[in-house]
Amino acid sequence: xxxxxxxxxxxxxxxxxxxxxxxxxxxxxxxxxxxxxxxxxxxxxxxxxxxxxxxxxxxxxxxxxxxxxxxxxxxxxxxxxxxxxxxxxxxxxxxxxxxxxxxxxxxxxxxxxxxxxxxxxxxxxxxxxxxxxxxxxxxxxxxxxxxxxxxxxxxxxxxxxxxxxxxxxxxxxxxxxxxxxxxxxxxxxxxxxxxxxxxxxxxxxxxxxxxxxxxxxxxxxxxxxxxxxxxx
Length: 232
What we know:
The protein is α/β, with parallel strands linked by helices.
């Protein structure tokens, strides 16, 4: 079985810098994708979802804030922003809004690597303790690896989907309140029941044979949701 490396996408129209960072990351055991524009980054996300996205703030075809916002809308992925700004004109509020971490250029590679590792560990902290009970033979969810397998078909989960499923896996066949799921999926307080509903629909498309007639991820009226894992 092939080893799955942690993956990083670098979005920058500075090819020399991007290639240099990519080489360093590959030597450190990362699977690296380079995107020379915001549009190319979004197209790449259709094919492969990385674990972390590194975005250059100033892009010729777009600005990094817009790219980061579209990335977050398209896929829930941690974003590290590279900002060539001074302390006097740094848009700190925008950086805090659209990026999970940031680095001011020029920077040392080791600092970028440390932030990437921190993002990976932060995601892992939310996801490590949710596992599908052994009673389910057809459905298997590995929260830590962000993977769900149904009837032998494997599908990748986003970070938000994995965090959302973790409390459901810890409480099989029992309702988990809507508020608890919102808190688990969006630990920074930016979640709400409407966003939860959208995420539930996306998860159902990944694990339900008939998403409109769910048999695993079931709604419990006036309570929340439960993960049904009873044996056949």
